[in-house]
Write a structure and sequence with these properties.
6-stranded antiparallel β-sheet; mainly beta
Length: 212
C-alpha cells in the first residue's frame, strides 16, 4: 500500500493525518491504516496535517502480509515474539480516564501524587494491559480469536513518558471441549525502558485445528 509522505509523525512507527477525499481523520500505525469515516480510503489517498482524533472507526485497511493462517497444530510451545516500544504519554492517561471513568488521584492529580511514595502520576493498569495487547496485534491469524485473559498482574507502576514493550511466549496448548478447536496460552510480559517487568498476563486463544 502507498501513502503520501506529508504525514505528522507521532513516533517512529506511527503517523496521523487527514484523508483529502473527504477531510476525515486517518491513523497509520504498524502498517495499519484506520479511517474514521465512511470514505473507502483508497491506498493512494492523499494524507496531510492537521492532526485530529476521529469519531467512529468504520474502515480498517491492512497490508496483505499481516494476515496469516496458523492452525493449532502449527503453533509450537516456547515460540517467542517481541513488540516495538510505545511511550505512555500524559494524554494517554487523560483519555483513558475519560473513557473508563477512573479519575483516581493516582492517575490524575499530580500535586497529590507528590505527597505519596511514588511521587508522580501513574498509568491505569487497564491502560497498560490495553496497550500491551495492542502491541502484540501486528499479525492477524485468521484461524484464531481471543478466548480470554487469565492471571493479570500489575507488577510495577508505569509513569508518564515510560516506554513499554511486550515479549509474548507460547506457554501451553490443549484441546478444547468443542471439536475442531484448541486453546493456546500465550504468556504476555510487559517491560519498561529499563527492562523491568511491569505487567504480566496469560492470553488465551481459541485456534482452529486443521481438521475443522
Amino acid at each position: 500500500m502507498r501513502y503520501a509522505s506529508n504525514l505528522t509523525f507521532c513516533s517512529e512507527n506511527e503517523a496521523e493525518g487527514v484523508c483529502q477525499t473527504n477531510r476525515t481523520i486517518v491513523f497509520i500505525s504498524r502498517k495499519i491504516a484506520v479511517c474514521f469515516c465512511t470514505c473507502p480510503f483508497l491506498p493512494t489517498a492523499t494524507i496531510s496535517p492537521p492532526v485530529v482524533r476521529g469519531r467512529q472507526l468504520i474502515t480498517i485497511l491492512k497490508a496483505s502480509h499481516m494476515f496469516v493462517k496458523r492452525y493449532f497444530e502449527d503453533i509450537e510451545i516456547n515460540e517467542v515474539r517481541r513488540s516495538d516500544k510505545r511511550v505512555i504519554a500524559a494524554a494517554d492517561i487523560d483519555l483513558h480516564a475519560k473513557e473508563s471513568g477512573d479519575y483516581f488521584p493516582h492517575h490524575m492529580d499530580e500535586e497529590w501524587c507528590k505527597t505519596q511514595p511514588f511521587k508522580k502520576r501513574m498509568a491505569h493498569g487497564t491502560l497498560i494491559i490495553t496497550v500491551a495487547v495492542g502491541l502484540t496485534a501486528d499479525v492477524i491469524n485468521e484461524v484464531s480469536m481471543t478466548y480470554g485473559y487469565d492471571k493479570i498482574r500489575f507488577v510495577r507502576p508505569v509513569f508518564i513518558d515510560d516506554a513499554i514493550y511486550v515479549v509474548a511466549t507460547i506457554k501451553d496448548k490443549k484441546d478444547h471441549k468443542k471439536p475442531g478447536f484448541g486453546i493456546v496460552t500465550e504468556l504476555v510480559e510487559c517491560f519498561n525502558q529499563n527492562d523491568e517487568l511491569v505487567m504480566v498476563c496469560e492470553h488465551l486463544l481459541l485456534v482452529n485445528k486443521k481438521e475443522n
